[in-house]
């Protein structure tokens, strides 16, 4: 099907007459904090015209397009909400979704398998009914091991190597397979479908599924979250000097997030710097609960409480020098503020929403609990007065050790990482569309910059705050354009409200274009010689 973009189409939202009169006054942020509404009236025609013109010359805190409510194209989106969950690969959630680039199969049976050195077998992907998974280690070294030079066959052996005794106490450590106490095969090659995650599959059917969304960096959660807000992960020799930063994929915080709380660790430029300069509002919403990092330089520790004031691997912005300099640490908020703002119709232009350990879907967190949490977030936006001008980008920060069959593209030596699920939920999202573009979290920044910042990039040559990042990630030739996931020429669609804890959905073969069910064995024997794999399997399994 040919794709036609209608960037020039104009449209007015539901309730448009009321919203056409709203303009965010952000010209003097120190005096009015960029969050009070200014209504331009005709009481004094000349003065009112001047006020409206001034407000229209900058981007409002609601993210509207240049002061007009008859916005067109991408500027119909005035609220971007990035919901970032944890540790799932694309194939583990949507590998059997009809029409997606999922698990290769013939006559409904997977044609791929992953070697298991313990069983001397090659394990085909299988349906996993359990909502609690173990997953596998997912640091930089394990990303390389899982990809295995493009063979995409290291997942099971990585999971076996990641089963350490300390992981019982450290389930969120990136070197661990979670100890869920489940007997049987390593579940990194298991997949779920609408029987376990019916709401996610419903969002894919009713909105947009992205089947080439890659983690931006070949590593774990902290570098992924740093890329999410700044398009880079680095280690800085001097906290106040961007020139001292160098790419770091394993430990950009030096294991000292808590020890250095209040003293910024990250000196390079993040996207909040561009938004502050343009007067674009943002908020980073943190769910109270547990956090997966340590209070000191220790590598392993018991998870500690997480809150908006706690810098951690899922909450990196309080450690950016720009956030401190611009006095925007207050914009990192508890998630209850997100729900209040959504209900009141006062969401900022850009929101990030991150979970806690219990609803994150990070093993051993239940995927049922995580899906229920995401559904609550999505339903709240759908019930909001802001729904008609919102776009929700839902993804998972890294692959969590779970199998995926697509070899990640190589970008600047740091990425991309292994493929993760991606969904776009919006009243303008194309219904039932599977986006095959190559994407990463850099595409979220690109969309935000195109919508609210006139296309300004995190580019050391043009952003006014040089740092030595290796490239401009938003300008990578391989990166797709999220605008293709929208039909801006059409009127906004009504909400699709879903129960937080739904009944199991239909199995994948019952969905349109699904194939007949097969009961063939998921295990293939590997020929052995002298206790080692032989033939074409020689060298493919680590002992």
Structure description:
This protein has 543 residues and is an alpha/beta fold. Helix content is 20%, strand content 14%. The protein has 13 helices and 25 strands. The chain has helices spanning 16-19, 29-32, 45-56, 90-94, 140-147, 155-161, 198-206, 221-230, 271-278, 321-325, 335-344, 367-383, 442-452; strands at 23-24, 37-38, 79-85, 105-106, 109-110, 114-116, 121-123, 126-127, 190-191, 208-210, 213-214, 234-236, 245-247, 282-286, 289-291, 304-306, 332-334, 350-354, 390-396, 422-425, 433-435, 439-440, 523-525, 528-529, 532-533. The strands form 9 sheets. Strands 17-14-18-3-19-20-10-21 form an 8-stranded mixed beta sheet. A 3-stranded antiparallel beta sheet has the order 6-7-23. A hairpin with a 2-residue loop joins strand 24 (528-529) and strand 25 (532-533). 51% of the residues are buried.
Strand order of the largest sheet: 17-14-18-3-19-20-10-21
Helix content: 10-25%
Instruction: For the record, give the distance between the C-alpha atoms at the N and C termini, rounded to a whole number.
Output: 48 Å
Strand-residue fraction?
5-15%
Shape: globular
How many β-strand stretches?
25
- Tally of alpha and pi helices: 13
**Mean pLDDT across residues:** 81
SSE inventory with pairings:
Layout: H1 16-19, E1 23-24, H2 29-32, E2 37-38, H3 45-56, E3 79-85, H4 90-94, E4 105-106, E5 109-110, E6 114-116, E7 121-123, E8 126-127, H5 140-147, H6 155-161, E9 190-191, H7 198-206, E10 208-210, E11 213-214, H8 221-230, E12 234-236, E13 245-247, H9 271-278, E14 282-286, E15 289-291, E16 304-306, H10 321-325, E17 332-334, H11 335-344, E18 350-354, H12 367-383, E19 390-396, E20 422-425, E21 433-435, E22 439-440, H13 442-452, E23 523-525, E24 528-529, E25 532-533
Parallel strand pairs: 3-18, 3-19, 8-9, 10-21, 11-22, 14-17, 14-18
Antiparallel strand pairs: 1-2, 4-5, 6-7, 7-23, 10-20, 12-13, 15-16, 19-20, 24-25
């Amino acid at each position: 099907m040919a794709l036609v973009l209608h960037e020039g189409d104009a449209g007015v939202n539901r309730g448009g007459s009321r919203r056409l009169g709203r303009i965010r006054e952000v010209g003097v942020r120190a005096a009015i904090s960029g969050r009070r509404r200014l209504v331009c009236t005709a009481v004094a025609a000349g003065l009112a015209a001047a006020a409206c013109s001034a407000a229209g010359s900058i981007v409002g805190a609601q993210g509207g397009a240049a002061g007009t409510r008859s916005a067109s194209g991408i500027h119909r989106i005035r609220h971007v909400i990035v919901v970032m969950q944890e540790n799932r690969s694309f194939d583990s959630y949507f590998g059997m979704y009809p029409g997606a680039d999922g698990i290769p199969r013939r006559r409904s049976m997977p044609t791929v398998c992953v070697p298991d050195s313990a069983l001397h077998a090659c394990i085909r992907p299988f349906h996993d009914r359990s909502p609690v998974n173990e997953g596998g280690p997912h640091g930089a070294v394990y990303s390389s091991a899982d990809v295995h030079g493009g063979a995409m066959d290291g997942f099971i052996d990585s999971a076996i190597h990641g089963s350490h005794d300390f992981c019982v106490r450290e389930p969120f450590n990136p070197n661990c397979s979670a100890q869920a106490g489940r007997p049987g095969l390593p579940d990194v090659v298991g997949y779920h479908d609408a029987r376990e995650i019916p709401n996610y599959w419903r969002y894919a059917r009713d909105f947009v599924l992205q089947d080439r969304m890659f983690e931006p960096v070949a590593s774990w959660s902290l570098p992924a979250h740093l890329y999410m807000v700044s398009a880079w992960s680095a280690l800085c020799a001097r906290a106040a000097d961007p020139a001292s930063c160098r790419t770091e994929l394993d430990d950009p915080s030096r294991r000292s997030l808590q020890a250095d709380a209040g003293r910024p660790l990250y000196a390079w430029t993040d996207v909040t710097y561009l938004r502050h300069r343009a007067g674009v509002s943002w908020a980073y919403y943190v769910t109270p609960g547990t956090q997966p990092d340590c209070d000191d330089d220790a590598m392993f520790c018991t998870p500690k409480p997480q809150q908006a004031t706690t810098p951690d691997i899922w909450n990196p912005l309080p450690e950016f020098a720009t956030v401190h300099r611009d006095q925007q640490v207050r914009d990192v908020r508890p998630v209850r503020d997100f729900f209040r703002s959504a209900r009141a119709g006062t969401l900022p232009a850009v929101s990030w929403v991150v979970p806690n350990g219990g609803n994150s879907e990070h093993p051993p967190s239940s995927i049922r609990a995580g899906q229920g949490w995401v559904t609550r977030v999505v339903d709240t936006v759908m019930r909001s007065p802001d729904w008609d001008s919102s776009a929700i980008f839902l993804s998972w920060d890294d692959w969590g050790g779970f199998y995926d069959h697509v070899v990640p593209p190589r970008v600047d030596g740091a990425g991309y990482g292994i493929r993760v699920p991606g969904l776009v939920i919006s009243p303008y999202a194309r219904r039932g569309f599977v986006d095959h573009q190559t994407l990463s979290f850099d595409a979220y920044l690109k969309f935000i910059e195109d919508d609210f910042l006139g296309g300004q990039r995190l580019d050391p040559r043009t952003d006014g705050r040089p740092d030595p990042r290796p490239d401009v990630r938003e300008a990578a030739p391989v990166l797709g354009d999220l605008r293709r996931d929208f039909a801006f020429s059409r009127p906004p669609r009504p909400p699709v409200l879903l129960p937080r804890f739904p009944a199991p959905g239909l199995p994948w073969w019952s969905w349109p274009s699904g194939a007949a069910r097969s009961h063939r064995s998921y295990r293939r024997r590997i020929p052995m010689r002298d206790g080692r794999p032989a033939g074409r399997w020689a060298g493919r399994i680590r002992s």
